[in-house]
Amino acid sequence: MMKKLILTSLLLIAPLLPATASAALFDDTEARKKIVEVEAVVNSHQQTLIDIKKTQKEVEQRLLAIEAITKGQVLAEMLNQIETLKQEVARLKGELEMASHNVDATQQRQKDLYTDTDSRLRVLEAGSTATPGAAAADGAANTPVLASTAAPSKNTQEYQLLELANGLSKESKHKAAFSAYDKFLKDYPNSVFAAEAKYGLGYSQFALKNYNSAIITQQKLIDQHPDSNKLPDAMFNLANSQIQLGLLPAAKKTLRDLIAKFPQSEITPTAQKRLKALESIK
Residue 261 sits in a domain of what CATH number? Predict the structure, then answer.
């Protein structure tokens, strides 16, 4: 195309040139070579441009392909991570359900053990003559026996509140009795009847199956009122709470201490029978 344009231009201007110039123009070999060289350069540049455009297009296509692959890989990785998390959650849920089942089974075994221990103790103690102090050992079916160190005035709120708590306990209204004993100890912490109230509070906790709390309350009575006549009953209630929690070695020690410290107490014969029953259990 370029060659034709150049030749056409030369033909058009040839008539306008002198004859000698025209002849020289068409006979000049060097000029023709230059034309060919220029045409070759132009063609080369055009081809280079075409190649560059082609290469650019290929690069763009490759970039699009790479971008699509990359996006696909990221999405696939995200899906894999989500699936892995789902599996982990399912595994943890299974472990949680298994742990919950084991806890329930353990609690049931403990409950069965406590029930069995208590039943065996009652069978071994069957036929014995109950004493007033033994009432505290038999759980919520009986009420604690509270012995006052001195008769309070019946006209005082202190006396009336203690009597209210004792009456509720005798009626087996242990939750209400607990609240009354607790109020008494808060209102009259230094009362001469504080030991009795603490014993009644601990007994109410035992009757409500709050054995750990009963142990703490009766231990406070033992520690804070070492001269109280309620110590034997408190120690016996403490031992029974320990039995209910399966703390048999501790219960045996508590009963032995009770028998050794208070051999003349009314509760001691019952404590001896209970200790004997405990020692017979293998």
Answer: 1.25.40.10
